[in-house]
DNA sequence: TTGTACTGTAATAAAAATAATTACAGAATG
DNA sequence: CATTCTGTAATTATTTTTATTACAGTACAA
């Protein structure tokens, strides 16, 4: 259900933070993360849409943090990337003739949402500044 | 990183609980979950290995809960099924020449483990009995 | 004692999700 | 106006997940 989108986003943000306001190209980011530049640009598109970064087109272009690292909350970053519950959305279709099958998805959803909220709350305790401070 | 293993396991356990000690075949379980019986048997193998269920081979065989539903903790079930961190294990290999790439995986691991622990703690608040009580 | 209905398990194939690649239009710079 | 970027779509490749097929072994029951 997940891909590595959250990791990629954090990696990008950490690199941008390291650049201290300087502009960084998707090529460079892709080189550090070791993935395809197009994936990086897609991820940046999302980060931009959520106000974490800004980009500049054209020669000498690239991306940079749109706000201070201490104002970027890891829980928010997670949410910006999240598409379905970490514990796995119930895209499966259980047997509607079974009393359990009929209702289980709604119960799983409730359980999963609650658990994921705990996870998000935990992530929200840290900002990008906290996370990036671990790097010398 | 995830599959639907946790959902499948919870579904199985709920059905076994519903059966109140009665023996249930993998065929029946697969029918309610709407997945392949072989997958069910694999999942049961895991549940058995962790002491949640027992099975009986041969004609009239099947599975049943190995202990009371109130002694089956959802956090433990999750752990029995977990193979890598929900937030995505860093199987990616970032550029070791980059100061950030070189260390990011260990930082992500620390962050992810902490967050996942919060999720597990949340799940651990409920037992199978609690979860199954939602079904009439 | 033999047929039947299960589990256990391996091997293979199919499907779905993820990531990489290619391609190119458009923007900014020098 | 050539160059170096981004933005984005389309396609292909890879990986992960799930389904299918197959069959040996076990237990029950006639």
The level-1 CATH class of chain A: Mainly Alpha
CATH topology category name of chain A: Arc Repressor Mutant, subunit A
**Category by helix and strand content of chain A:** mainly alpha
Task: Quote the average pLDDT of chain A.
Answer: 94
Order of strands side by side in the largest beta sheet of chain A?
A: 1-2
Biggest sheet descriptor of chain A: 2 strands, antiparallel
Poorly predicted segments of chain A: none
Computed CA radius of gyration of chain A, to the nearest angstrom: 18 Å
Task: Bin the strand percentage of chain A.
Answer: 5-15%
Distance between the termini of chain A: 33 Å
Q: Brief description of this entry?
A:
Chain A has 136 residues and is mainly alpha-helical.
Tell me what you see in this structure.
The structure is a homodimer of 136-residue chains. In chain A, helix 1 (5-18) packs across helix 3, helix 1 (5-18) packs across helix 4 (74-81) and helix 2 crosses helix 3. With 136 residues, chain A is mainly α. Chain A has helices at 5-18, 26-33, 37-49, 74-81, 99-123, 128-132; strands at 53-56, 62-65. Chain A is built from 6 helices and 2 strands. Helix content of chain A is 54%, strand content 6%. In chain A, strand 1 and strand 2 form a beta hairpin. Chain A has a two-stranded antiparallel sheet with strand order 1-2. The first copy, chain A, is elongated, with a radius of gyration of 18 Å. The two termini of chain A are 33 Å apart. Chain A has one domain (5-132): Orthogonal Bundle (Arc Repressor Mutant, subunit A). The interface between A and B is large, with 49 and 49 residues. The first copy, chain A, binds a DNA duplex (30 and 30 nucleotides) through residues 1, 3-4, 25-27, 35-36, 38-39, 41-42, 44-45, 55-63.
